[in-house]
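OP here, attaching both records as promised.
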Amino acid sequence: MRVASNGRFAPRELAGTEKVWPADLVLLALGFLGPERGGLLDELGVKLDARGNVEAGPDKRTSVPGVFAAGDMRRGQSLVVWAIAEGRECAREVDAHLSGRPSLLAARAQSRSDVALA
């Protein structure tokens, strides 16, 4: 890792280090500066809140049917435990949306003790 003239780390590719992992779905959790403008959110017409985060209700649904948001995308930069908890909640809501019935994930989550966030 090298340091750029502005004092920040400047990662660079290392030839020959590429890897390919087969996957049906990939979710990335990276350092977050806010939802990216001019991309998919704008194309879909997803509403943003006054702070520039994706606006979503308690059920994690955005203003666009079938589009959900959780974690930093919805709350803004926060603690990873909040992102994990919201990711689990969002997964239950997506499961219910896709299956057309109450999520089986919700029943399972209620049967075990999750980390309480105060």
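Record two, same layout:
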Amino acid sequence: MGRISPTGAIQVRTVALDDLVSSGQLPVPDYIKVDVEGTEMSVLSGAKSTLERFHPTLFLAVHTKEINRQCCRFLRALDYQLTAIDGAAVEECDELLAWVPRPKSGAEPEHD
């Protein structure tokens, strides 16, 4: 169970996206919009396997500079490219677009 706010009395059921995808309750997403008022890292952590395996494109609203920094570090570690939606520098923005470049059609994937 989670709470709407850290000091709130209302409890809500929470579930990780990874659990829903791996159980087949949800199809693999192509796009994910995240706007969760300060709990962005909890959402990303609960979707880590899905992000690593399937690389859906993310639209991410971040609500503090520290959350921005944490999210950028997390996503870059998963090979995501980042750009600011609002035109600011990535490190200063409130909204991010995150994606993993895909090989061009017919092109061989790069190997290490």
